[in-house]
Amino acid sequence: MEKTFTIKSPSGLHARPAALLVQKAGSFPCDVFLVKGEKKVNAKSIMSLLALGIEANEEIVVITEGEKEAEALQAIGELLEA
Amino acid sequence: MLTVRELVEEFNFEILAGKEGLAKQIEDYSIKRPSAELVGYLTYLTPKRIQIYGRTELGLIQQMEETTRRVNIANVMVKEVPCIIVTRGLPVPEELIDLANERQIPLLTTERSTTRLFYLLIRYLTNHLAPSTLLHGGLVDVYGVGVLITGESGIGKSEVALELIKNGHLLVADDAVEVRRVDEEHVRGRAPKRIKHLLEVRGLGILDVTTLFGESAVRDEKDIHLIVHLEEWQEGKEYDRLGIDPPPTTEILGIDLPKIIVPVRPGRTIATIIEVAVMQNRLRHEKKVPILNL
Questions:
Q1: For the whole model, what pTM was predicted?
Q2: Chains A & B: contacts with CB separation below 8 Å
Q3: Would you list the DSSP string of A35-68?
Q4: Does B198 touch chain A (CB under 8 A)?
């Protein structure tokens, strides 16, 4: 499943919220990926997420594949738009 | 993705005309000196290339009759041209300025000589327009050999990288590696800017390798020569037991690289295995494969 979200937090997704997102993604059995432009990274890796450098107002595509993919998509989306 | 504006900033070009075209994309990393085209030979115009006008081109333009001059230039300065650069600070003919404004082609000048600019531009463009990708894994310089460590999340790639650093090898990137094909034979990796020289070890968090181990423990980029793939030991799977045949290869951006699969299991010191794999791979390169007398 995939869906596009827009980052609402004015400071983007910096270290602490990124760590939260990684934790949340890790709690699901399915694969979770974030896509920004041409770059696709594993949302369960804090370093990859920081490497992506997600800023305010950016559009991020979330892709979930596998068990509980719908729940994961919703939970990750909520964190991105928080 | 490279715009003319970025190029202007990098090389400090002066913008003479055609400001509206600064957002144009540069797609072709070749460069054109359009002297043949200026006298009417348009077969190989390749309009998406940056055009450089030096003494030859401007000299030619000057010799042309006024009536043919504009027509000739207009045939060469087509809309697709990303930008035009005049070298040596040479005086720029009015026709060039007019056309640049009319067709929104940035017209730039520099004091550099044509040859020097050629060299710098080609180097810069090949670097920036090379095919690239973001890979999941770590990159460490082991005895001067670029080793890309891959494997599933949690297999211990960062821990291995940490151990290699402790053994005196150099970290290039952890977890995410930006890889680009620099030429027909080489792929080069570096860390994404934001996580440069950082290493994440579960239980410790994100470590700043430069602060902890010093400048001598890191390097900015490195060509990848060898892939070491870590995986959980699978019972029943056949792992290489002889090491006589060269390892299979995996393709990164169209270049084949040897890939060694190393099963992880308690009691196997992966860092040491990687060091030895590197030495063995080097021997293989030097055609000094250890032929065992069995």
A1: 0.74
A2: 40
A3: EETTEEEETT-HHHHHHH---TT-EEEEEEESTT
A4: yes
How would you label B1-38 residue by residue, b for 16+ Cβ within 10 Å and e otherwise? ebbbbebbeeeebebbbbeebbebebeebebbbbbebb
Select which of A14, A39, A40, A68 is catalytic: A14
Instruction: Give me the number of domains chain B comprises.
Output: 2
The CATH number for B55's domain is 3.40.1390.20
The complex's ipTM works out to: 0.79
Average pLDDT over residues B174-191: 92
B86 & B170 share domain = no
3-state secondary structure A3-34: EEEECCCCCCCCHHHHHHHHHHHHCCCCEEEE
State the residue for tokens 């990124």: A18
Q: Is B241 known to be catalytic?
A: yes
Q: Nearest Cβ partner of A42 from B153, B174, B195? A: B153
pLDDT, tens digit (0-9, with 9 covering 90-100), for B27-80:
988 999 999 999 999 999 999 999 999 999 999 999 999 889 999 999 999 999
User: Under a CB-based contact definition with an 8 Å cutoff, are residues B134 and B42 in contact?
Assistant: no
Q: Tell me the per-residue pLDDT of B138-160, one tens digit each, with 9 for 90 and over.
A: 999 999 999 999 998 889 999 99
Spatial distance between the Cα atoms of B15 and B79, rounded to a whole number of angstroms: 17
Same domain (yes/no): B169, B269: yes
Hey, which bits of B115-236 come out as E strands? 132-136, 138-142, 145-150, 170-173, 176-181, 187-190, 198-201, 205-208, 221-223, 226-232
Residue of A nearest to B135 (CA): A41
Residue B294 lies in a domain: no
The active-site residue, picked from B49, B112, B175, B219, is B175
In a domain, B293, yes or no: no
- Strands B84-86 and B107-109, by their bridges, are parallel
Contacts of B195 in chain A (CB under 8 A): 47, 50-51
Look at the domain A2-81 and name its fold. Histidine-containing Protein; Chain: A; (3.30.1340)
